[in-house]
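Q: Got a minute? One more chain.
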Amino acid sequence: MLEPEFTALRKRAADLIKKGGLPAKAALVKSVVASKVIANPIKCDLCAQLIKSEDLQYRITFEGKVMSAESRVVHFLCHAAWQLEAAQAEQKKGTAPS
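A: Always. Here it is, folded:
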C-alpha cells in the first residue's frame, strides 16, 4: 500500500471517529482478535472493501455500549489507521495516557 492510500484510510478513520462510527479512545477496546476469513469475504467496517480469504480480519470488540454495534471487523492496515487517529484524537483532547 502506498502512503497516499494509507493517508486516505486515516482520513476515513478520523471521519468515522468524528461521526461516532468508531470510538476516539483505544482504551475502550475489550479485545482484538486476528483470524483468517473462513467463509465468505467480509466487508471492512472502515474502508468498505472486502476482507478476502487470503487476508487477516481484525475483530475489535468494545467495552459496554460504545456505539450501535459492539464490534467492528477491519483489515490490518485499517486497524492501524484507526489506532493512529484514535491516539491523535485523544491527544488533541488532552486525554492521551502519559
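A: The helical segments are 3-19, 76-93.
Q: Perfect, thanks.
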